[in-house]
Amino acid sequence: MNSATQTLRPQLERARRAWRGSPLPGFLDWWGGELRALLPTRWQTLFSGGNVWCLLRHEDGQWRARCSGQPQTTAPWSDALDAPTQQAMLSTAVAGVDRQDLRLALCLPQEAVLRRRLLLPEAARDNLRQIGAFEMDRQTPFRPDQVYYDLRELPGPAPAGRIAAELVAVPRAAVDAKLEHLRNAGIAIDAVDLCEADKRLGVNLLPPEMARVHSDPRRRLNLILAGSAVLLLLLCLGQWLHNHQDALTDMQAQVDAMHGDAQKVSLLRKQLEDSAGASGFLARRKTESVAVVDVLQDLTTRIPEDTWLERFTVDSSGHVGMQGQSAKASSLIDVLQNSKLLTGANFQGVIQRDPATNKERFFMDAQLQKPGKAKPASSSSAGAAR
Question: The pTM is what?
């Protein structure tokens, strides 16, 4: 046994005791039994599994073997037989047990074993074998190197802060001869125990260094199956994550598309608002300004026949400029004072006479009335501007 195994043994023993002390083993055994009972009889053997203990007893020079909890099935055989014959007799006794599940225990008679009941602190639960070696001198007349021993925790109530345990010990001289005989016969055992009726007590007096190591092919298969199950679980999780990632990508693409549509709608709304604003601006400008045609019609109606215009301008602020000739230009101010479209008519510069036409050349400016005040002339045109 290597040092790593010796180092891990206390932790493994602690885990085994915690497992055995929990209600899970009993529940799983009951549940597995109920499930196996539903299977066909031929299949029940395949799914039975677990260690099957075969108890070996040596009485009056003869060996007796039977599986724990089962009646005697074969006749005893003499320990004087040769090794192959004894192995064959043992094989016949355990013929119905799978070799991988078979465990052999050498059972000792009750009178050959020393048993002591102890009350120990709860902290001793994790180091029972070491506590057993320490208590050996106090509870028995032997030293630890003179006996095979084991210390087991007893079920049932115990004082607060303590556990009930039983120390089981047997002198090595009473067991070594039987162990040597079994080794010479080629029979390896897994435990040295006591028999209570047709069952073992549940201790193992063999020291850890003498325990038989079993190679369990099922363990490798179980590890492979467990690894495969974990791998399949990881693959399922990976597929689930991949599906969710694909769904998220699709949703993101849909959101991006909807975002693009929303931007287009926002752009169209802005264009519509701009168009509506421009239309409103034009409508307001139209309602706030006076049509040039109406101004020309009003001038045509008011100015006399001997007056004509050479230039007529209207700017964006409503300023009106007029340049022309008239037989009597000074009278134009009075003519335009009653206009409902123009206001503030006034001459700009000096009135001069044109030698070619013998008329007075003038330049006037005025301001258009606001639409609310301006009223287009309704009378028909009496003359045309020239």
Answer: 0.50
pLDDT at 216: 66
In order of 68, 69, 77, 205, the CA distances from 72 in angstroms are 10, 10, 13, 24
With the C-alpha atoms ordered 71, 75, 77, 83, is the resulting torsion angle positive or negative? Answer: negative
Q: pLDDT of 292-343, one tens digit each?
A: 888 888 888 888 888 888 888 888 778 888 888 888 888 888 888 888 888 8
Contact 308, 385 (CB under 8 A): yes
Cβ 300 vs Cβ 384: under 8 Å:
yes
What is the percentage of the chain residues whose pLDDT exceeds 90? Answer: 8
75 in the same domain as 168: yes
Reading phi first (left if > 0) and then psi (alpha if -120 to 50, else beta), residue 170 is in: beta
- Give me the domain span that covers residue 364: 292-368
Please give the Cα distance from 97 to 52 (Å, whole number): 7
Residue 28 makes CB contacts below 8 A (sequence gap 6+) with none
Is pLDDT of 108 > 60?
yes
DSSP 3-state of 327: coil
Task: Give yes or no for a contact between 153 and 163, defined as CB atoms under 8 angstroms apart.
Answer: yes
Q: Could you report how far apart the first and last alpha carbons of the chain are, in Å? A: 132
Neighbours of 306 (CB within 10 A): 10
Cα dihedral 178, 179, 184, 185 sign: positive
Q: Render pLDDT for 346-377 as a digit per residue (tens, 0 to 9).
A: 888 888 888 888 888 889 888 888 765 544 44
Neighbours of 120 (CB within 10 A): 20
Q: Which two tokens stand for residue 303?
A: 């100015």
Q: Based on the structure, what is the number of domains in the chain?
A: 2
CA distance 326 to 309: 9
Please say whether the beta carbons of 383 and 303 come within 8 A.
yes
Residue 303 within any structural domain of the chain:
yes
